[in-house]
C-alpha cells in the first residue's frame, strides 16, 4: 500500500493546463454536473429537498452513464458516502486526500495504472444550497431525514459546511 500511494503521489498532476484530452475530460464532467444540477433544481422547485433526494437516488447514476462514452466513463465518489455506489476505491481515496490538501486544484489527474485506466478528478465543493441535504442533519426537516433514512440507511454524507470537499466527479479513460 505505501509503495502504491507513494507512486501515485509522485505521478499525479494538479493542473489547469488545457490539452485536448483534458478538455474532453472537463467537458464530460461539466455535462454530468449541468444535467444533474438541472434535474435537482427542477425537483427542488416542484417538491423541495425530498424530491431532490429522489433525483439523486434514482437518476444520478443514470446521468453519469449517459454522459459516458467514446472511451470515457463518468462517475462520482464521495468523501462521506451517502450512496454506496459512490464509495471511493484505493486510488480514489488517494486523489480525494490530495484534493482536500489542495483547495485551489480544479483537476487532479492520475496516470494509467496497472489496469490501464487513467483517472481524472474534478473536485465537488459544498455550495450553500448543498447544505439543505448535506449540512447539519439535526437542522433538516423531519420529512427529509425520513427519506434519507429510507433510501440511504448508512448515510454518512451530512455535517458539511460551505466550501468543504464533498467528493469528486471522476472521468476515467482507458489506455488500452
Topology, element by element:
Layout: H1 2-11, E1 13-14, H2 20-58, H3 60-67, E2 72-78, H4 90-101, E3 108-110, E4 117-125, H5 131-134, H6 142-151, E5 165-174
Antiparallel strand pairs: 1-3, 2-5, 3-4, 4-5
Helix pairs in contact: 2-3, 2-6
Question: Could you list some keywords that capture this structure?
Answer:
single chain; 176 residues; alpha+beta; 5-stranded antiparallel sheet; 6 helices; 5 strands; disordered N terminus
What does this 3D model show about the protein?
The protein is of the alpha+beta class and 176 residues long. The protein has one domain (14-174). Helix content is 47%, strand content 18%. The chain contains six helices and five strands. It has helices at 2-11, 20-58, 60-67, 90-101, 131-134, 142-151, and strands at 13-14, 72-78, 108-110, 117-125, 165-174. The chain has a five-stranded antiparallel sheet with strand order 1-3-4-5-2, sandwiched between helices. A hairpin with a 6-residue loop joins strand 3 (108-110) and strand 4. Helix 2 (20-58) packs antiparallel against helix 3 (60-67) and helix 2 crosses helix 6.
Amino acid at each position: 500500500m505505501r509503495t502504491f500511494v507513494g507512486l501515485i503521489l509522485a505521478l499525479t498532476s494538479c493542473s489547469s493546463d488545457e490539452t485536448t484530452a483534458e478538455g474532453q475530460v472537463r467537458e464530460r464532467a461539466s455535462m454530468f454536473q449541468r444535467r444533474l444540477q438541472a434535474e435537482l433544481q427542477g425537483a427542488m422547485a416542484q417538491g423541495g429537498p425530498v424530491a431532490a433526494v429522489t433525483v439523486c437516488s434514482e437518476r444520478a447514476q443514470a446521468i453519469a452513464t449517459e454522459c459516458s462514452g467514446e472511451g470515457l466513463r463518468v462517475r462520482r465518489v464521495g468523501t462521506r458516502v451517502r450512496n454506496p455506489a459512490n464509495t471511493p476505491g484505493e486510488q480514489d481515496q488517494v486523489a480525494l486526500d490530495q484534493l482536500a490538501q489542495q483547495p485551489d486544484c480544479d483537476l487532479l489527474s492520475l496516470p494509467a495504472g496497472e489496469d490501464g485506466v487513467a483517472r481524472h478528478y474534478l473536485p465537488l465543493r459544498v455550495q450553500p444550497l448543498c447544505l439543505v441535504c448535506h449540512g447539519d442533519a439535526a437542522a433538516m426537516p423531519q420529512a427529509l431525514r425520513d427519506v434519507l433514512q429510507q433510501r440511504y440507511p448508512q448515510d454518512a454524507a451530512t455535517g458539511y459546511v460551505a466550501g468543504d470537499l464533498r467528493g469528486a466527479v471522476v472521468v476515467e479513460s482507458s489506455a488500452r
